[in-house]
Write a structure and sequence with these properties.
homodimer; about 230 residues; alpha+beta; Pnp Oxidase, Chain A; seven-stranded antiparallel sheet; four-stranded antiparallel sheet; 5 helices; about 35% strand; globular
């Protein structure tokens, strides 16, 4: 397994399980491509197995360098199970558009996804845990952490944080136009791409908000950083 | 397990694995609530296990009554594996907003998710397969199927379709404002909800589109049907 750092264009060596099997030309093992997808998406789907039964649970996450963090209550079945050191698969998917072909068969979607394999580690170091919590908040809304009340000791203790090292991961990306059968290009059917994006609406004040507090600029101008669309 | 039909307000009996463990007040076993989420979302995350290794793969899907269909090439590792009758977990998640509390600890997200358990069945009946393919297309863009070239025999044969019966499923929903610690409501920090929605951009014509073909109204006015936000 390649060890990672922050430089761009670094490649992960695909393992047996992280290697893209179907449509390998859509595969990408560059760490920066993987990080960009992880940083833009808001939720991941965590897969784990108990007695041969797979579970897939959506959850928030944060990233610091080559570590992905998930967190929750110590009562969470998912976290308690993952903390037993079992294999985990974490998948993050960004949907970028509908690909509308001239035939039903060639309809598709433009997307960017990352699949990560590994085993999760319990974060016990207080400083790393604190940084992980900062990463969760900043991942969702940049500039938020410095404005809000930061976690006190009981909250830190009452939060379970697990880390997953981003060594065995791959990205898969589809972009661009539909690919139709040659004979179908003459059909009088509209074809193309309908781009899709996760966009914010108007911020809704909490009903107990203190009078006179304005919506911050980082909320007014909120956007997920779009990279390779 | 309750058997399902199309009536609303029908309840599924939670099984040991489909019962919501964490925050059970967010749980919902009504079939219509589950169907609404499935019909609005565009992709699901399919979880399965091979030699204790979980895999989570994003894919498109369609629904007809109490059946969820996934499809792909017969060369797909996921489909071939699921066709062995192993346990599967399919999860669908809609992100509805960011929940911005006065403390980092109470930040959350508004979402609607569905988790389905079961085993997938190969669809061999030609008519059911054809209806499943129609459901895939219509799920993505309503009114599209009748306009495009429909699958011919080789395409039908070259598509593997699996069905999952929606008997063991649950929905989980969070809505509304942040819930802060009582003492934090006095903090001079903006709090509230930033709604998020998957929205279409401007349709992009395929570069080989026949001249004079306009973007159809069902694309111009495209929206995912929003239910309980």
């Amino acid at each position: 397994m390649t060890s990672l750092n922050n430089t761009t264009n670094q490649q992960l060596t695909p393992s047996k399980r992280s290697q893209i099997k179907r449509l390998p030309k859509r595969g990408n093992y560059e760490t920066q491509a993987i990080y960009n997808i992880l940083d833009e998406a808001l939720i991941c789907h965590v897969g784990f197995t108990v007695n041969n039964q797979p579970f897939v649970i959506p959850t928030a996450y944060g990233r610091v360098d080559d570590k992905l963090y998930i967190h929750g209550s110590p009562a969470s079945r998912m976290l308690r199970t993952l903390n037993q050191g079992i294999e985990v698969c974490v998948t993050v998917t960004l949907l970028d558009g509908l690909v509308l072909a001239r035939s039903a068969f060639h309809h598709s979607m433009n997307y960017r996804s990352v699949v990560i394999f590994g085993t999760a580690m319990l974060v016990t170091d207080t400083e790393e845990k604190y940084e992980a919590l900062r990463a969760f908040t900043e991942h969702v809304v940049s500039k938020r952490w410095q404005e809000v009340r930061q976690p006190h000791k009981q909250e830190l203790q009452g939060t379970m944080v697990l880390s997953l090292t981003l060594t065995e991961a791959s990205a898969k990306v589809r972009t661009g136009n539909p690919v139709d059968d040659e004979a179908d290009y003459d059909l009088p059917v509209w074809a193309g791409v309908l781009p899709l994006q996760m966009l914010p609406g108007k911020a809704i004040d909490d009903e107990r908000l203190i009078e006179g507090i304005e919506v911050p600029d980082y909320i007014k101008n909120y956007a997920r950083h779009s990279s390779t669309k």
